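Quick one:
INPUT:
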């Protein structure tokens, strides 16, 4: 049974991936400082409260646990926050990753799945976006991920670190049966914010309705978090089988505007979403939709959730269960 280290495994995507790793027969251990993750998302026996900057602690953990590969989620991920505090994002996302890679090198661990982002592409010339589109981030968050991907390419060449970067779009939905869903503080993701507006009656602000899109609102590729976790598993399996480094987009290939998601929320909940229109948010490209053909053909990944209504329904169920508990 392969021992896998999951950094940031108490967070939203990380905890879903830990859950799927266990279901798939792996033995994950989680390193998370709980600054943005939640202790209740992880079995206490698997959790090690550890900061990404603690290189020695990470090395010791990997040695003592016999770790064979790492899935790296421990990054800050809010575009708006990164615009306000760029130094925080470079310190954690780049500096923290370097600390992890150094610890891996010392511990003799040479396989990594890296949680990257579609923000890598900035304002792409082609949509859906292929992996060979140029890196052109428009936020410090996106830039931090581009820098880490560049570091990984050099480490692959000169250190033998095999890494797969997964560039994905809007992680969404929940696994209510596992008790897992979105619990960011503050919450920045669209679907839980829309559901909160429904539940509380407090209007949500839609950031901009003057983009060059059919209804004026931003278009994104919403991928269910469990499908995203599955992409990390197939990437891990490829590396463990001796596969090469690479980068893959992960998404459904279908874009949804903010207003289309709002309508899906209204359909699922049977209630109107109170909302207002505000100015654009800094660093937001008009449209990001994945071309995930390469991932499907190379690693055999397929999403189970392809309709936005079904994704919203899982998030709504999680929110209702959370409120009831």
């Amino acid at each position: 049974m392969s021992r896998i280290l999951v950094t940031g495994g108490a967070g939203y995507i990380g905890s879903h991936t830990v859950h799927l790793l266990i279901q798939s027969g792996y033995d994950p251990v989680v390193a998370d400082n709980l600054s943005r993750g939640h202790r209740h998302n992880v079995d206490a026996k698997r959790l090690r409260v550890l900061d990404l900057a603690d290189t020695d602690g990470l090395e010791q953990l990997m040695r003592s646990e016999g770790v064979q590969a790492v899935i790296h989620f421990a990054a800050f991920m809010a575009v708006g926050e990164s615009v306000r505090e760029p130094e925080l994002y470079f310190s954690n996302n780049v500096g923290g990753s370097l600390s992890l890679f150094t610890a891996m090198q010392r511990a003799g661990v040479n396989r990594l799945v890296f949680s990257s982002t579609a923000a890598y592409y900035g304002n792409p010339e082609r949509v859906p976006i292929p992996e060979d589109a140029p890196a052109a981030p428009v936020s410090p968050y996106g830039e931090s991920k581009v820098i880490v991907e560049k570091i990984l390419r050099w480490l692959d060449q000169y250190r033998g670190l095999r890494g797969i970067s997964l560039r994905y779009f809007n992680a969404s939905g929940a696994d209510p049966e596992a008790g897992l869903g979105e619990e960011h503080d503050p919450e920045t993701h669209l679907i839980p914010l829309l559901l909160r507006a429904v539940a509380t009656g407090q209007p949500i602000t839609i950031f901009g309705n003057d983009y060059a899109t059919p209804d004026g609102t931003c278009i994104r590729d919403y991928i269910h978090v469990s499908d995203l976790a599955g992409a990390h598993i197939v990437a891990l399996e490829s590396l463990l089988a001796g596969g090469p480094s690479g980068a893959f987009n992960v998404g459904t290939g279908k874009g949804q505007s903010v207003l289309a998601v709002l309508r899906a929320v209204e359909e699922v909940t049977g209630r109107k979403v109170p909302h207002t229109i505000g100015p654009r948010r800094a660093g937001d490209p008009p449209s990001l939709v994945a071309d995930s053909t390469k991932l499907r053909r190379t690693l055999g990944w397929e999403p189970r959730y392809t309709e936005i209504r079904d994704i919203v329904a899982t998030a709504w169920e999680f929110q209702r269960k959370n409120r009831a508990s």
